[in-house]
Design a protein that fits this description.
Layout lengths: L1 H11 L2 H41 L11 H9 L4 H6 L1 H46 L5 H22 L2
Helix pairs in contact: 2-5, 3-5
Length: 161
């Protein structure tokens, strides 16, 4: 009797529809997670880098000068009076230089953040392992040691002239 009711209720249950909806929802979650990562990238990397480029010191940015003076310095053509008469062209020149600077500095900043996150995660795992006082899985230890060796080799390669 119970088997008959179970079979009868499962017969009305559309497993294909349920799996289709589950796949759609998982795709939406993945798209949302990727969108959040890109948005965080813009908020925490692009905006500060633009501000640093515009108002930063001379070796990183443009020291917060006015737009005509910036264009005169960037292009080595004309003076600030010339560029104040041609503000549309000046804005295009400045925007292109800003985008070029972002293409250089944003990957560097992301790499620095990724290395920092990696070290934080490894520190958390090391602390967790010390607190457990148990032997870790040998495969995890071997993987961790391999990653540490790769980073040591990377640092040595970066330190060589």
């Amino acid at each position: 009797m119970i088997t008959y009711h179970s079979y009868n209720s499962l017969k009305r249950f559309d497993l294909g529809y349920l799996l289709g909806r589950a796949i759609e929802k998982s795709q939406q979650i993945v798209k949302f997670a990727i969108a959040v990562l890109f948005h965080l990238s813009n908020v925490f990397a692009e905006f500060p880098l633009k501000e640093l480029y515009c108002h930063g010191p001379s070796f990183l940015g443009l020291e917060g000068d006015s737009l005509p003076r910036i264009c005169a310095r960037i292009t080595y053509h004309g003076d600030p009076e010339f560029w104040s008469l041609n503000m549309d062209e000046c804005q295009r020149v400045y925007d292109s230089k800003e985008v070029a600077a972002l293409h250089v500095w944003k990957p560097i900043l992301m790499l620095i953040w990724a290395i920092g996150v990696f070290y934080m995660v490894t520190s958390i795992f090391a602390t967790w392992a010390l607190r457990r006082r148990e032997r870790l899985d040998p495969d995890i230890v071997e993987t961790y040691q391999a990653i540490r060796m790769l980073f040591r080799q990377f640092r040595r390669a970066m330190d060589t002239p």
